[in-house]
Amino acid sequence: MNYGFIDFVGNIGVVIIVVAYLLLQLDRIKSSDLAYSVLNAVGASLIVASLIVDFNLSALLMEVFWVLISFIGIGRHFRLKTIRS
């Protein structure tokens, strides 16, 4: 097995998603916080980048939906912020 830069990128994405989930479980962030959605979107995007090189359809679909759902959370954050202002 060759471990290259793109593998490293994907692993960083995994670490970001796991850290976001850990912070959520430790009550350091809320699921409605912008940071939670951004961490998930960035992490999943890095995993998508690695999956484009080392293609796996099931994993790619999962991560693409993870990014899209994170964008919903990001959009919701800014919509609520605008309403509150």
Folded structure, characterized:
It is a single chain. Helices cover 81% and strands 0% of the residues. It has 3 helices and no strands. It has helices spanning 5-25, 34-53, 57-84. The protein starts with a helix and ends with a helix. It has 85 residues and is an all-alpha fold. The longest helix has 28 residues, at 57-84. Helix 1 runs antiparallel to helix 2 (34-53) and helix 2 (34-53) runs antiparallel to helix 3. It is elongated, with a radius of gyration of 14 Å.
What is the string of SSEs from the N terminus onward? Answer: HHH
Helix amount: over 70%
Given the C-alpha coordinates, what overall shape results? elongated
Runs with pLDDT <50, length 5+?
A: none
Q: For the terminal residues, how far apart are their CA atoms?
A: 53 Å
Q: Characterize the biggest β-sheet.
A: none
Radius of gyration, taken over Cα atoms and rounded to an integer in Å = 14 Å
- Could you tell me the strand content as a percent range? under 5%
Structural class by sheet pairing and helices? mainly alpha
Helix count equals: 3
